[in-house]
Write a structure and sequence with these properties.
Number of domains: 2
Largest sheet: 6 strands, mixed
Order of helices and strands: EEEHEEEHHHEHEHEEHH
CATH superfamily of the largest domain: P-loop containing nucleotide triphosphate hydrolases
Number of strands: 10
Shape: globular
Strand content: 15-25%
Number of helices: 8
Distance between the termini: 74 Å
Structural class: alpha/beta
Bound molecules: adenosine-5'-triphosphate, magnesium ion
Strand order of the largest sheet: 6-7-8-3-9-10
CATH class of the largest domain: Alpha Beta
Radius of gyration: 20 Å
Helix content: 25-40%
Length: about 280
Amino acid sequence: MAQQGHLEIRNVAKQFQVAGALLPVLDNVNVSVAAGEFVTIVGASGCGKSTLLRLVAGLDRDYGGTIDYDGDGIDGPSLDRGLVFQEPRLFPWLSVAQNVALGLLNADMDTAAKRRSVAEHIDLVGLSGFENAFPHQLSGGMAQRAAIARGLVNRPGLLLLDEPFGALDALTRARLQAELQRIWSHERITMVLVTHDVDEAVYLGDRVVVMAPRPGRIAETFEVGLAHPRDRSDAVLLRTRNAVLAALEATTGPDGPWSSKPQTRPAAISIPPQQAAA
Ligand SMILES: Nc1ncnc2c1ncn2[C@@H]1O[C@H](COP(=O)(O)OP(=O)(O)OP(=O)(O)O)[C@@H](O)[C@H]1O
Ligand SMILES: [Mg+2]
């Protein structure tokens, strides 16, 4: 049987209608992700990364080109293609455990096995003790960790992660990156992860795809070529990181967010004394 999880994105174009005008967001996007591969995507804000993940997840079917998953066109969302959104999107009226359990709604498991799996995943993201908490009782990072647990619990063939660690502190982030890598190595889930963090992109990805903005397109792809798990200080990682940064800088210019040029900060706002005293 063919291994599950092969994604083929061909000539994808997407436009949105904004204030009566057509805004081209994606143009001629081609990405092939082998079953079990870990691909990371970096690119300037607004270049269409989330839009692309939504198309792959089947949440938006209005686009040009083709997206095939294991040889079939995508015609809607599926539990086998999980998406962890850029913001947690938990159901506010459900507890953490109930939110995570949603990922197993249609799973072929008995109740005890589901309960065990939910508890394991809550533990995995460091939320043990918060099973019965509601989303409004969590910090932003905790809510995002609950969403990651929900995305993983069903062990989809393909997991799409949209800046999943953006809201986390550096330590939790490093721990979850390592955990995600461990789960991926063990389960061989195909992963596509969007991030703004170039170190994260090269640490996790077998390949790093750099997107350019307006319209969103693939600028360059880098093979990392290192086995997992990786040593963060490996010279190959550092070299690849610098190459990815240079490619990003080329997409956004010398004044863009990835520029190696010293950044000039805006002058501090001075408040006239009479206002400051008021
Ligand atoms: N539903 C929508 N209607 C109109 N325009 C949209 C819609 N969704 C996204 N866009 C536009 O598409 C472009 C790409 O948005 P998208 O959210 O995919 O960017 P992104 O690369 O994920 O950015 P970020 O890194 O900030 O998350 C932006 O210009 C955005 O304004
Ligand atoms: Mg986005």
